Amino acid sequence: MNSFPSADACHWLSLPRVLMDGSVFIVALGAIVAGFVQGLSGFAFSLVAMSFWAWSVEPKLAAPLAVFGALSGQIIAALSVRRGFDFKLLLPSMVGGLAGIPIGISLLSLLDMHLYKGILGALLIVWCPFMLATRRLPRIRVGGRFADGLCGLLGGVCGGIGGFTGPIPTLWCSLRGMEKDMQRSVIQNFNLATLAFTMTSVDRRAAHPNTGCDLFVARSGIGRQQNLRTLDLADVCPRSTAP
Fold it and tell me: How many structural domains comprise the chain?
C-alpha cells in the first residue's frame, strides 16, 4: 500500500504553511499601519513599520523594505499634495543628509537583530516624548546653518540604517519654531531626496541580495523560504501525471 500522500493532499498541506507564514503577515501588517500613519503625518513610515518588522525580519532585509515603502509614500505625497520649496533653507540639511547616508549604510552591515532592535527602541524612547512635549520646550535660535546641517547628517545616518530620515529633522524643525507649512515643505523635500539617494545607494553585496522591491513582487528571501518549504513537501509527494 502506498504510504505517500496524494498530489491533492500535498497541495492542501502546503497551502496553509505558505499563507500562515508569520513573517509575511507581520510585513503586511506593518506596511498597512505605517502607510496609514504616513498618510496622516507625511513621514514616519519606516519608524512605524520597523516597530513591527524588527521582531521577525532581519535588519539587512527590513531596511530596504522600509526605504522602499517610505519612498513610495513620499512620491505619492509629492504628486498629490505639493509643498513649497525653499532651496536656501533646505540646502544645509540636504547636504548633511546626503553625507550621512553612506555612514548609515555602512553601519547597517555591522548590526545584528538584537542590536538593531535596541537602537530602534532607544530612538522611539527618546523621540516620542520629545515630540509630545515640543510645544512646551524652548525654541532653539542658535547654531544656524551648521546646526541644520548636523541635524540633516543625523537624519541621513538614520536613513541609511533603516529609512528613518524624518524623525530627527521633524523634531529639529519643531524646536526651531518653524511654521507648519514651512516645516512640512522642509520635511517632505528632505525625505524625498534622501530616501531616493538611499534606495540607489544600498550596497547589495553588504546587505540582503534582494531589495525592498523584491518582497513586494514576491521575490524576496521570505518568498524563497516559502518556496523551499513547499519543495520540502514536494520531495515526499508524488508528482501528478497527465491522464
Answer: 1
Report residue 73 as a C-alpha cell: 509614500
For residue 241, being part of any structural domain is answered with no
Confidence band for 234, pLDDT divided at 50, 70 and 90: very low
Orientation angle between helical segments 113-132 and 167-176, nearest 10 degrees: 20
55/224 Cα distance (integer angstroms): 19
Summarised one tens digit per residue, pLDDT across range 8-40 is: 444 434 434 443 456 788 888 888 898 888 877
Nearest in space to 25 (alpha carbons), one of 4, 55, 5, 47: 55
C-alpha span between 128 and 95 (Å, rounded): 26
Would the pLDDT of 124 be above 60?
A: yes
Report how far residue 34's alpha carbon sits from residue 39's, in angstroms, rounded to the nearest whole number.
8
- pLDDT value for 99: 94
Query: In the chain, what are the helix, strand and coil shares in percent, each to the nearest 5?
Result: 75, 0, 25
The answer to whether residue 242 sits within a structural domain is no
CB neighbours of 214 closer than 8 A, spacing ≥ 6?
Answer: 220, 223
Burial of 165 (0-12, 13-18, 19+ CB in 10 A): buried
CB atoms within 10 A of CB 229: 14
**pLDDT tens for each residue of 144-155:** 889 999 999 999
Alpha-carbon span 105 to 133, nearest angstrom: 31
